[in-house]
Amino acid sequence: MQQPEEGRGAIGFLTTVASASHGVFGGFLLVDEVGRPLEFHCTAPVRVSRAQEILYGPTLHGELHGRRIGGSLVNAAGVKPRLVLVESQQMLQVQDETDLPVAVVDPVEPLRERFGGLLPEIDLREPFERIREAIAEAQRHG
Amino acid sequence: MPESSLPTSPLSSTAPVEVLSWGGLALPEPVPVCLKPEPLQIERMALPLSLPRATVRSYAFTPAAALPPARRQAAVVAGISESGCRPPAEGPRPRARIKPPGDVVKLSERIFYLLQPDLETILETSELVFPHEPYPFQYEGMAFLAPRHSAVLADEMGLGKSMQAISTIRLLVHSGEARRVLVVCPKTLVSNWKRELGEWAPEIVVAVIEGEPARRRWQWQLEDVPVTLANYEVLVRDEALVEELKLSYDLVVLDEAQRIKNRGSRTSEAVRGLRRRRSWALTGTPVENSASDLVGLFEFVSPGLIHDGMPPRTLGESVADHVLRRTKDKVLKDLPPRIDRDAIIELSPEQRETYRLAEEEGVFRLSEMGPGLTIQHVFELVLRLKQICNFDPATQASSKLDRLEAELEEVAASGRKAIVFSQWVAALEKISARLTRFGPLQYHGGMPTPARDEAIRLFREKPEHSVLLLSYGAGAVGLNLQFSEYVFLYDRWWNPAIEDQAINRAHRIGGTGGVTVTRFLATGTIEERIDTVLAGKRDLSETILSTAEGLAQEGPRAGNGFTQEEVFGLFNLPIPQRRAAAA
């Protein structure tokens, strides 16, 4: 596994995008200390059956998005990030699949207080938009 | 579901029933009911609980080259610069994202662009300091240029095309994507480009191709020089040399690129012959007369992309991804009502020599006058030198007029109007004689009132009159020319308040567009020294001797806007003793 860069190291941004027609896509972007991309991992769409939706009920999001998709992505990374940021509480379930520290990006201020030295000086919500755009582009290309 | 045996119990009921009789009607005897449960048939269904696996696709990116330690410059917030930039705005800034151009088809490359941070973040974190905060539309211009191998930046004049190009060049050089860049511009703009490169990319070494052939040969071969600056004439002259040296560039930028619209011209052939990876063209008028102009331009920008005879709609669609044009009215919300810029002019060789002799002789004579020296003597020398900056007395050569003519080409081509101020009627007449194709009209104190009124009417109503030439005295008060979007100060006035009044003929409440004010300034002359003093005097409270009403007549009034110390200081002359005692 490639060693992280000197200094602050890489930060990971993990999120999923649900498509009514295709299923759920996952994206994991690793950036350096100034927010430039180091690696990007995305999944093919994952579909669940109606029965699974019912059976899993409210636990589905965490199980599918967090553990299943998130876990696959985080473990595919070549660069080991110092911290993984997610957008929702349910995505925190990715922690079951990795020993990396995981935190929710909102609210930002307590995050900076806690992890200040690790975090790039960028808008921490912005990389998630890049992931969504990249996933949309990958979808367009098939 | 596991099988189960349900407990059962028989159901029976015998309740006493009272028989009631109405005319023979009787309820029947209750019948005991016995229910026996049948064993349940349970069909087992296997439902997969395990969620499907996710197939992962991965992309890895080379970390950007480490940036050299940037020279931290003091952030100079000096109001509005030549590129019309402004001090940093309050509140969240809009972000410019670099998007993949249409000709990038590989998914991994398209994703690479989409995953980049916004341009403002790239610039902030790369420690590339700007002297002034660019406007949002200028960030967008940079984001447009950065990923493109073929691009035409066609912003309207005054919106900062050169600044956007320079800043993007700087990004590419620092990220290692461009190691050799060639900028080609008209000869009259070389000093301007030198100045702008020095302002917007001060850490980048620039080689200017000029001088004798042997010197130029050496300059063309310079290595480790990221940016080379040449004018069109030199490029044509050295076309064979460039070919012989097999020079190639990561990027070639053409300024005033409409110069190459004629594909048969030597200029067009020379630039098309340059070996390059990226081709950018800067022009405010990509289509001057016909679609053929655009075809000529794209023979350099992207050969073969378009051709003569294409229907206009098809032409537009073909070039859409390669051309970015903004007009002032579109980006008006980002602009202040007025953009000031300095046009730095190099005197022609004749003017330079005449100027040098006049200044040396003049200063010598002034210094010999001793106590007899008055401020009027100094003014006379200043005036003479300023007149030489306008026109060489013997040959009438004028670098300022060359530059003005080039600027007015773009103004007229875009259907706009310009006003030009000078403090001398003689200068206005010389300008008028040279610029007949722009239908110049004059307005000065030597004209009878009906003639002046007629000039204003024609200027306002007739499109063939693109330029109005005014003297500061006559044109600075009482006129409403707010339909003029361009103001040129051919020579400077002593008092910034008078200049502002002149400019406000065009820059008024109710004007529909921003006003671009261009101040001509001959470098290495008295004009530069006056400009330095005037810049400090922009705050009117510092002006000691300002008298706006004093401009009822032509010519300067002694001391308007300048203190005695400043006037004598223009030539490093001491104030004569009797004056110093009286001060």
Beta fraction of chain A: 15-25%
- How many individual domains of chain B? 2
Strand order of the largest sheet of chain A: 3-2-1-4-5
Shape of chain A: globular
How does the helix and strand content of chain A classify structurally? alpha/beta
**At the first level of CATH, what is the class of chain A?**
Alpha Beta
Uncertain stretches of 5 or more adjacent residues of chain A:
1-7
Number of separate domains of chain A: 1
Helix-strand makeup class of chain B: alpha/beta
- Biggest sheet strand line-up of chain B: 4-5-3-6-7-2-8
Which radius of gyration of chain A do the C-alpha atoms yield?
15 Å
Could you name the CATH topology of chain A? Nucleotidyltransferase, domain 5
The percentage helix of chain B is 25-40%
Describe this structure in words.
The complex is a heterodimer of chains A (142) and B (583). With 142 residues, chain A is α/β, with parallel strands linked by helices. Chain A has a single domain, classed as Nucleotidyltransferase, domain 5. Chain A is 34% helix and 23% strand. Chain B has 583 residues and is an alpha/beta fold. Chain B has two domains: 136-332, Tandem AAA-ATPase domain (Rossmann fold); 338-541 and 552-582, P-loop containing nucleotide triphosphate hydrolases (Rossmann fold, 3-Layer(aba) Sandwich). Helix content of chain B is 35%, strand content 13%. Chain B has 21 helices and 14 strands. Chain B has helices at residues 107-114, 119-125, 136-145, 161-174, 190-200, 213-220, 232-237, 239-244, 266-272, 291-301, 312-319, 349-368, 375-390, 399-413, 425-434, 449-461, 472-475, 496-503, 526-536, 564-569, 577-582, and strands spanning 56-60, 150-153, 181-185, 206-208, 227-231, 248-255, 275-282, 323-324, 338-345, 418-422, 441-443, 467-471, 486-489, 515-522. A seven-stranded parallel β-sheet of chain B has the order 4-5-3-6-7-2-8. In chain B, strands 9-14-13-10-12-11 form a six-stranded parallel β-sheet, sandwiched between helices. The longest helix of chain B is centred in the middle third of the chain and has 20 residues, at 349-368. Chain B is elongated, with a radius of gyration of 37 Å. The termini of chain B are far apart. The A-B interface holds A 5, 26, 29, 31-32, 34-44, 46-49, 51-52, 55-56, 63-64, 68-69, 72-73, 76, 78, 120-123, 126-127, 130-131, 133-134, 137-138, 141 and B 47-49, 51-61, 63-64, 95, 107, 110-112, 114-118, 121-122, 124-126.
